[in-house]
């Protein structure tokens, strides 16, 4: 996907944080990082945009129901139900539900904790 490609703004998507784990005490070199689990629901016609990357935020997706279309590098790929797509440092994409029923995914990623104000 190039900087010239534009995805619609996000609409019809809800996200629920299911849990996090502080990785600092668990693994050397992971201070300030958390493992995060979220559930996303995409209503019919929903879009998760704009185009975004996953640099420093690797993850993987599993589709519980419905179909989600992943747009990257000019290619649209449908996923679901089952294992979805990887999200690594080379991922630049946006998502949509072109179906007529809600699509639900779970997403697991590693995030950098936000600095807290002093």
Automatic annotation (TrEMBL):
InterPro entries the record matches: Cupin_2, RmlC-like_jellyroll, RmlC_Cupin_sf
Location of the Cupin type-2 domain: 39-108
Gene3D superfamilies assigned: Jelly Rolls
Transmembrane segments annotated in the record for this chain: none
Superkingdom per UniProt: Bacteria
UniProt name for this protein: Cupin domain-containing protein
Species classification: Bacteria, Bacillati, Actinomycetota, Actinomycetes, Propionibacteriales
């Amino acid at each position: 996907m190039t900087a010239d490609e534009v995805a619609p703004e996000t609409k019809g998507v809800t996200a629920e944080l299911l849990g996090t784990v502080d990785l600092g005490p668990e693994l050397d070199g992971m201070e300030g990082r958390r493992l995060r689990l979220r559930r996303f629901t995409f209503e019919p016609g929903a879009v998760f945009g704009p185009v975004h990357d996953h640099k420093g935020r690797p993850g993987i997706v599993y589709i519980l129901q419905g179909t989600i279309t992943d747009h990257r590098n000019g290619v649209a790929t449908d996923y679901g139900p089952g294992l979805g797509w990887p999200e690594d440092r080379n991922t630049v994409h946006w998502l949509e539900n072109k179906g007529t029923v809600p699509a639900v995914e779970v997403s697991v990623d590693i995030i950098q904790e936000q600095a807290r104000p002093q």
